[in-house]
Amino acid sequence: MSSSLYKTDHYQWIKATVNQLRERNFDRVDWDNLIEELESMGKNDRRAVLSLLTRLLEHLLKLSYWEVEKERSGNHWAAEIVNFRAQIQQRLEDSPSLKTELEAMYAKAYPVAIKSVSKLFSLPNDAHISLEKALDEDWFGV
Question: Is the torsion defined by CA of 133, 68, 121, 126 positive or negative?
Fold first, then answer.
């Protein structure tokens, strides 16, 4: 199969590649682009968990420390927290090996979340939410 299809019609390229693999027609597989796609999929899964973790931490920080807005927005933040945790959990169930990278992702996500919410309100100096608390379905920071 020509790699030009990869550039002109990605969806058709995927269908054709899957069909070639199913038929064990390995000599026609566009291996270079297939390898690139598989590597990209792994990176996308990691990026998705990192993004969800960052959003989760932002909402937990708001719910925990933004008293002025808590009455008006607290229920929305709490609902988003449930949603982000569920999405993270689903990603980890689909790709359990990502669990080993959670600490590293947390180390990247937490400073971003702090910086983000600091644009909205002043956090106390001792503000902190651990990874364990962030992922604990029974803890909302209240």
Answer: negative
Distance (Å, rounded) from C-alpha 101 to C-alpha 106?
9
Residues in CB range of 79: below 8 A, 6 or more apart: none
Express as a percent the part of the chain with pLDDT over 90.
86
Reduced to 3 states (helix: H, G, I; strand: E, B; else coil), residue 9 is coil
Q: Supply 110's token pair.
A: 């937490």
Query: What is the spatial distance between Cα 34 and Cα 72, in angstroms, rounded to a whole number?
Result: 49
Rounded average pLDDT over 133-139:
93
In the block, tokens 């995927």 appear at 14
State residue 2's pLDDT score. Answer: 59
Alpha carbon 63 to chain centroid distance? 20
Planar angle of CA 50, 136, 54, nearest 5 degrees: 20
Asked if 57 and 110 touch (Cβ cutoff 8 Å), the reply is: yes
Determine how many CB atoms are found less than 10 A away from the CB of residue 137: 10
**CA–CA gap between residue 55 and residue 63 (Å, rounded):** 12
